Amino acid sequence: MDLHTDRPTSTHAAFLFDMDGTLLTSLAAAERVWSRWASRHGLDVPRFLPTIHGMRALDTIRRQNLPGVDPQAEADWITQAEIEDVAGVEPIEGAAAFLQSLPADRWAVVTSAPRALALRRIEAAGLPLPPLLVSAEDVQQGKPAPDPYLLGARLLGVPVSECMVFEDAPAGIRSAEAAGARVTVVTASHTHPLPTPHPTLSSYVGWQAGAAPGGGVWLSGPDLKR
Question: Could you tell me if 207 and 146 lie in one domain?
Fold first, then answer.
Protein backbone atom coordinates (compact mmCIF):
# COMPACT_ATOMS: atom_id res chain seq x y z
CA MET A 1 0.00 0.00 0.00
CA ASP A 2 1.39 3.39 -0.94
CA LEU A 3 1.45 6.28 1.49
CA HIS A 4 -1.65 8.28 0.50
CA THR A 5 -3.13 9.61 3.73
CA ASP A 6 -3.51 13.00 5.34
CA ARG A 7 -3.51 11.49 8.83
CA PRO A 8 -0.46 11.54 11.07
CA THR A 9 1.90 8.65 10.33
CA SER A 10 4.75 6.98 12.17
CA THR A 11 7.59 4.97 10.65
CA HIS A 12 9.08 1.82 12.13
CA ALA A 13 11.83 -0.61 11.14
CA ALA A 14 9.39 -3.55 11.27
CA PHE A 15 6.14 -4.83 12.78
CA LEU A 16 6.03 -7.75 15.23
CA PHE A 17 2.60 -9.27 15.81
CA ASP A 18 1.36 -11.50 18.58
CA MET A 19 -1.17 -13.98 17.17
CA ASP A 20 -4.05 -14.99 19.47
CA GLY A 21 -6.23 -11.99 20.26
CA THR A 22 -4.06 -9.76 18.07
CA LEU A 23 -4.41 -11.11 14.53
CA LEU A 24 -7.10 -13.69 15.15
CA THR A 25 -9.56 -14.71 17.81
CA SER A 26 -9.25 -18.22 19.24
CA LEU A 27 -10.65 -17.52 22.69
CA ALA A 28 -13.58 -19.96 22.52
CA ALA A 29 -11.47 -22.80 21.16
CA ALA A 30 -8.66 -22.27 23.65
CA GLU A 31 -11.01 -22.05 26.60
CA ARG A 32 -12.83 -25.25 25.55
CA VAL A 33 -9.57 -27.19 25.60
CA TRP A 34 -8.17 -25.59 28.75
CA SER A 35 -11.47 -26.04 30.58
CA ARG A 36 -11.29 -29.80 29.96
CA TRP A 37 -7.71 -29.88 31.17
CA ALA A 38 -8.35 -27.78 34.26
CA SER A 39 -11.44 -29.79 35.23
CA ARG A 40 -9.50 -33.03 34.87
CA HIS A 41 -6.87 -31.71 37.30
CA GLY A 42 -9.35 -30.38 39.85
CA LEU A 43 -8.71 -26.68 39.23
CA ASP A 44 -11.28 -23.94 39.68
CA VAL A 45 -12.04 -23.45 35.99
CA PRO A 46 -13.55 -19.91 36.09
CA ARG A 47 -10.63 -18.64 38.16
CA PHE A 48 -8.04 -20.50 36.11
CA LEU A 49 -9.08 -19.55 32.55
CA PRO A 50 -8.11 -15.86 32.74
CA THR A 51 -4.53 -16.91 33.52
CA ILE A 52 -3.90 -18.85 30.30
CA HIS A 53 -3.68 -15.99 27.81
CA GLY A 54 -0.48 -14.69 26.29
CA MET A 55 1.87 -17.29 27.75
CA ARG A 56 3.22 -20.66 26.66
CA ALA A 57 1.16 -23.67 27.72
CA LEU A 58 4.25 -25.18 29.34
CA ASP A 59 4.74 -22.10 31.52
CA THR A 60 1.04 -21.96 32.45
CA ILE A 61 1.10 -25.60 33.54
CA ARG A 62 4.34 -25.24 35.49
CA ARG A 63 2.82 -22.36 37.47
CA GLN A 64 0.13 -24.71 38.84
CA ASN A 65 2.73 -26.84 40.71
CA LEU A 66 0.55 -29.93 40.32
CA PRO A 67 1.99 -33.00 42.08
CA GLY A 68 2.87 -35.95 39.86
CA VAL A 69 2.30 -34.00 36.63
CA ASP A 70 4.74 -33.92 33.71
CA PRO A 71 4.36 -30.33 32.44
CA GLN A 72 5.79 -31.10 28.99
CA ALA A 73 3.49 -34.08 28.47
CA GLU A 74 0.48 -32.02 29.55
CA ALA A 75 1.52 -29.14 27.28
CA ASP A 76 1.80 -31.58 24.37
CA TRP A 77 -1.73 -32.79 25.11
CA ILE A 78 -3.01 -29.21 25.16
CA THR A 79 -1.31 -28.44 21.86
CA GLN A 80 -2.73 -31.47 20.08
CA ALA A 81 -6.22 -30.80 21.42
CA GLU A 82 -6.02 -27.18 20.24
CA ILE A 83 -4.78 -28.23 16.79
CA GLU A 84 -7.84 -30.49 16.51
CA ASP A 85 -10.28 -27.81 17.70
CA VAL A 86 -10.24 -24.65 15.58
CA ALA A 87 -14.01 -24.10 15.53
CA GLY A 88 -14.68 -20.39 15.81
CA VAL A 89 -11.15 -19.29 15.01
CA GLU A 90 -11.58 -16.10 12.98
CA PRO A 91 -9.44 -13.14 11.91
CA ILE A 92 -9.58 -9.83 13.72
CA GLU A 93 -11.54 -7.51 11.45
CA GLY A 94 -9.31 -6.01 8.75
CA ALA A 95 -6.24 -8.06 9.73
CA ALA A 96 -5.87 -9.93 6.43
CA ALA A 97 -5.78 -6.80 4.28
CA PHE A 98 -3.49 -5.06 6.76
CA LEU A 99 -0.96 -7.91 6.66
CA GLN A 100 -1.10 -8.15 2.88
CA SER A 101 -0.12 -4.48 2.64
CA LEU A 102 3.17 -5.02 4.47
CA PRO A 103 6.57 -5.57 2.84
CA ALA A 104 7.40 -9.25 3.34
CA ASP A 105 10.78 -8.64 4.96
CA ARG A 106 9.41 -6.20 7.53
CA TRP A 107 6.98 -8.20 9.65
CA ALA A 108 6.82 -11.33 11.75
CA VAL A 109 4.47 -13.20 14.06
CA VAL A 110 5.82 -13.71 17.58
CA THR A 111 3.54 -16.09 19.45
CA SER A 112 3.48 -18.15 22.64
CA ALA A 113 1.80 -20.95 20.70
CA PRO A 114 3.81 -23.92 19.42
CA ARG A 115 4.62 -23.67 15.69
CA ALA A 116 2.21 -26.39 14.56
CA LEU A 117 -0.69 -24.79 16.44
CA ALA A 118 0.18 -21.31 15.20
CA LEU A 119 0.20 -22.44 11.57
CA ARG A 120 -3.09 -24.32 12.07
CA ARG A 121 -4.84 -21.28 13.54
CA ILE A 122 -3.45 -18.86 10.94
CA GLU A 123 -4.72 -21.18 8.22
CA ALA A 124 -8.11 -21.59 9.91
CA ALA A 125 -8.48 -17.81 10.16
CA GLY A 126 -7.65 -17.36 6.47
CA LEU A 127 -4.71 -15.07 7.17
CA PRO A 128 -1.53 -14.91 5.10
CA LEU A 129 1.31 -17.01 6.44
CA PRO A 130 3.99 -14.84 8.02
CA PRO A 131 7.37 -14.65 6.31
CA LEU A 132 8.88 -15.21 9.77
CA LEU A 133 7.33 -17.01 12.74
CA VAL A 134 8.79 -17.05 16.25
CA SER A 135 6.97 -19.71 18.27
CA ALA A 136 7.05 -21.27 21.72
CA GLU A 137 9.84 -23.71 20.81
CA ASP A 138 12.20 -20.98 19.65
CA VAL A 139 13.00 -19.42 23.04
CA GLN A 140 14.15 -20.64 26.42
CA GLN A 141 12.01 -18.04 28.19
CA GLY A 142 8.58 -17.14 26.86
CA LYS A 143 6.51 -14.00 27.44
CA PRO A 144 6.54 -11.94 29.68
CA ALA A 145 10.33 -12.28 29.28
CA PRO A 146 11.65 -10.12 26.41
CA ASP A 147 13.27 -13.06 24.60
CA PRO A 148 10.56 -13.67 21.94
CA TYR A 149 10.49 -10.09 20.69
CA LEU A 150 14.26 -9.72 20.89
CA LEU A 151 14.57 -12.81 18.71
CA GLY A 152 11.97 -11.61 16.23
CA ALA A 153 13.77 -8.32 15.70
CA ARG A 154 17.15 -10.02 15.44
CA LEU A 155 15.92 -12.45 12.79
CA LEU A 156 14.50 -9.55 10.79
CA GLY A 157 17.83 -7.78 11.14
CA VAL A 158 16.44 -4.62 12.75
CA PRO A 159 16.81 -2.94 16.17
CA VAL A 160 13.98 -3.97 18.46
CA SER A 161 13.76 -0.38 19.72
CA GLU A 162 12.64 0.63 16.22
CA CYS A 163 9.96 -2.06 15.95
CA MET A 164 6.24 -1.71 16.59
CA VAL A 165 4.77 -4.64 18.50
CA PHE A 166 1.04 -5.39 18.24
CA GLU A 167 -0.17 -7.17 21.39
CA ASP A 168 -3.36 -7.83 23.32
CA ALA A 169 -2.38 -9.64 26.54
CA PRO A 170 -0.64 -8.24 29.63
CA ALA A 171 2.13 -10.87 29.45
CA GLY A 172 2.88 -9.98 25.84
CA ILE A 173 2.76 -6.25 26.51
CA ARG A 174 5.27 -6.69 29.34
CA SER A 175 7.46 -8.77 27.02
CA ALA A 176 7.49 -6.06 24.36
CA GLU A 177 8.14 -3.33 26.93
CA ALA A 178 11.02 -5.30 28.44
CA ALA A 179 12.50 -5.77 24.97
CA GLY A 180 12.40 -2.01 24.43
CA ALA A 181 9.94 -2.06 21.53
CA ARG A 182 7.13 0.37 20.81
CA VAL A 183 3.69 -1.10 21.51
CA THR A 184 0.18 -0.88 20.09
CA VAL A 185 -2.51 -2.72 22.06
CA VAL A 186 -5.20 -4.58 20.12
CA THR A 187 -8.45 -4.58 22.13
CA ALA A 188 -10.68 -6.61 19.78
CA SER A 189 -10.84 -9.62 22.12
CA HIS A 190 -10.94 -7.70 25.41
CA THR A 191 -14.04 -8.23 27.55
CA HIS A 192 -12.91 -5.63 30.10
CA PRO A 193 -10.95 -2.38 29.64
CA LEU A 194 -7.19 -2.78 29.92
CA PRO A 195 -5.53 0.37 31.25
CA THR A 196 -2.49 1.11 29.10
CA PRO A 197 -0.31 4.08 28.19
CA HIS A 198 0.08 2.66 24.68
CA PRO A 199 -1.92 3.43 21.52
CA THR A 200 -4.87 1.08 21.02
CA LEU A 201 -6.92 -0.24 18.14
CA SER A 202 -10.14 -2.25 18.26
CA SER A 203 -9.71 -3.62 14.72
CA TYR A 204 -7.49 -2.99 11.71
CA VAL A 205 -10.30 -1.27 9.84
CA GLY A 206 -9.32 2.33 9.14
CA TRP A 207 -5.63 1.59 9.70
CA GLN A 208 -3.12 1.76 6.88
CA ALA A 209 0.47 0.60 6.52
CA GLY A 210 3.02 0.06 3.80
CA ALA A 211 6.64 0.28 2.72
CA ALA A 212 8.17 3.57 3.78
CA PRO A 213 10.46 5.51 1.45
CA GLY A 214 14.01 4.57 2.31
CA GLY A 215 13.00 1.40 4.16
CA GLY A 216 10.86 0.42 7.12
CA VAL A 217 7.09 0.51 7.43
CA TRP A 218 4.77 3.45 7.88
CA LEU A 219 1.65 3.25 10.03
CA SER A 220 -1.40 5.50 10.13
CA GLY A 221 -4.68 5.08 11.93
CA PRO A 222 -7.57 6.82 13.62
CA ASP A 223 -6.22 6.25 17.14
CA LEU A 224 -2.58 6.89 16.34
CA LYS A 225 -0.73 8.71 19.13
CA ARG A 226 2.47 10.57 18.34
Answer: yes
Q: Give the integer Cα–Cα distance in Å for 88 and 28.
A: 7
* pLDDT of 177: 98
Q: Is 18 a catalytic residue?
A: yes
Q: What is the DSSP string of 89-148?
A: -EEPTTHHHHHHTS-GGGEEEE-SS-HHHHHHHHHHHTPPPPSSEE-GGG-SS-TTSSHH
Does residue 162 share a domain with residue 106?
A: yes
Of 2, 18, 147, 168, the catalytic one is 18
pLDDT, block means (10 residues), the chain with 226 residues? 51 97 92 92 92 86 92 94 94 96 96 96 97 96 97 98 96 97 92 84 92 92 58
User: CA quadruple 129, 136, 166, 50: dihedral positive or negative?
Assistant: positive
Q: Are strands 133-134 and 107-110 parallel, antiparallel or unpaired?
A: parallel
Check whether residue 57 and residue 103 sit in a common domain: no
- Clarify whether residues 112 and 160 are in a common domain: yes
Which residue among the candidates 20, 59, 147, 168 is catalytic per the annotation? 20
Its pTM stands at: 0.87
pLDDT at 225: 46
Selection from 193, 202, 194, 196 nearest residue 183 by Cα: 196
Given 84, 105, 125, which residue is the final one in a domain?
84
Shared domain check, 186 and 125:
yes
Residues 120 and 148 in one domain: yes
